[in-house]
What we know:
The complex is a heterodimer of chains A (237) and B (348).
Chain A: E1 4-13, E2 16-26, E3 31-35, H1 42-49, E4 57-62, E5 65-66, H2 72-78, E6 80-82, H3 95-103, H4 110-123, H5 139-151, E7 157-161, H6 169-184, E8 188-192, H7 196-199, E9 205-210, E10 213-218, H8 220-225, H9 227-234
Chain B: H1 3-23, H2 27-52, H3 61-78, H4 82-104, H5 109-129, E1 139-140, H6 157-179, H7 181-191, H8 193-198, H9 203-229, E2 231-232, H10 234-237, H11 240-253, H12 260-279, H13 286-301, H14 305-326
Amino acid sequence: MSLLELQGVSKRFGGLMANQDVSFSVDAGQIVGLIGPNGAGKTTAFNCVAGFYAPSAGEIRLAGQVISGLPPEACARAGVGRTFQVARTFTSMTACENVMAGALLRTRRVSAARDEAMQWLAFVRLDAFADKPAGSMTISEQRRLAVARALAIAPKLLLMDEVMAGLNPTEVREMVAVVQAIRERGIACLIVEHVLEGIMPIADRIVVLDRGLKIADGTPAEVSRDPHVIHAYLGDE
Amino acid sequence: MKASTKTAALAVLAAAALLLPFVTHSPSHLNLAILVLMAAQLGVAWNLLGGYAGQVSLGHAAFYGLGAYTSTMLLLNFGLNPWLGMLLGGGVAALSSLAFGWSCFRLKGHYFAMATIAVAEIVQIVFTNWEDAGSAVGLTIPMDQRGWGAMVFADKAPYYWLALGLLALTLLATWAVERSHIGYYLRAIKDEPDAARSIGINIARYKQVALSISAFFTALGGSLYAQKELYIDPGSVLSTALSIKMALVSILGGVGTLFGPVVGSVVLTTIEELTRASFGGTGRGTDTIIYAALIVGIAVFYPSGLIGGFREWQRRRAARRAERRAAPKPARIPSGDRPAYTTDEGQS
């Protein structure tokens, strides 16, 4: 059984069909890339899974439990962690406190949450910055901090929204290493990404959306040869 | 500052505060001190919602009034002990805060603040027209019973200790909340509500928790005011100016910090009373003009509040010291090797 399953998910905003009958699945421990041109509906699909939008039609299941229509906090409790396009770290808090806020979902004991947070900070190689205010960290550091914060809620599935956008090549490599380490822990990742050289080498599967529809689903090699995908990205000759 | 230094400084301050009534016998000085403490307590209570959770309420006078009216009406109608009345007042306010939150938390930011003004205004209008609550004339607490049991005193010192105790209690509660998971959640909600939800925080519930605790302690302050003045009316315990004062002491002192509102109250209440004493009574409002000018001054020069300004100054001083330590010492050149062209003036 798949960990995450989308079945015929549609999302309508007024007259705009942002997602139309989108179905795909993510298996436990997989890295799945969700790609597509601007306006393809990637972030919409993503927000449906994370509970920020309720799908207009269709069903989303996580480990068999229906999560579509649940509010974000309930999705988080069910095991969906997420990051945002802009890191949205808690800027008035230190790096450690940011991650503690996540860890407090599973334990109400602050000291236990602090220990847990330090482990996750070490995991994303930010342990040296534990006491630094999140607001004074670089974009790349804040992105990794947001990943640590999402991991601290002990998710089964981690959704990452363009974690590599705007990073320099060294930082992209760092982030790729982090994503691979997450998979090694048995946490599945669904990654919305524009930086294809970051996602293609590490993804087990790629799902391609275009204008709200799923146009391809397969291994990175299959997808990059797919004529529909080439058409969507490059247009007609 | 080291934690131990901080604790020691706090203990000394607390001891000094406790002994103040033995040092000064001037009723006006003691009264000023009581006003400072009472405003500080309200600021600390307000800060839990407005500072930590970032939900700026300009309607907290509603809870203050509910506390004052509950204890006073129970005392006048049923002869209920004001200590118990005070506690019940806190309960009534905390309970009413559910309706307050239910209606206002649908709105965010400025619109939330506006809604809180409206709700407080409604409460004031209700009490102004409610005959059993004395309508606009207000209620007077008789002085026939005195002492700690009745919470009525002829001199100021007991009120001073009461205000100090209530402030300490409110600080303690805030400190406990700050250190618990609730404190982390409130700050998360203030910084990034969407990110807070994504890590499983039910933001509606935690805003309400902050509001209820805040309302409870605000109401205790209201009951204390009633027992101190022995007279309440809608203008004195339900006015919008009161709501603004609670927000002001917190904002000028430093929102979201434990002692910010205390610092804010010491400065603000003192300025308020001094300007009133020096420039008041002319009928031209000179005192409020100067008071307002000083508030604007603090807001301009210490945008993060007085505590924030102090921390900034501490950080800069520490940075300067570190810089001086890191700077290489001027190299000593043995006199024999000293080049002929160097002079003593050249070395500094």
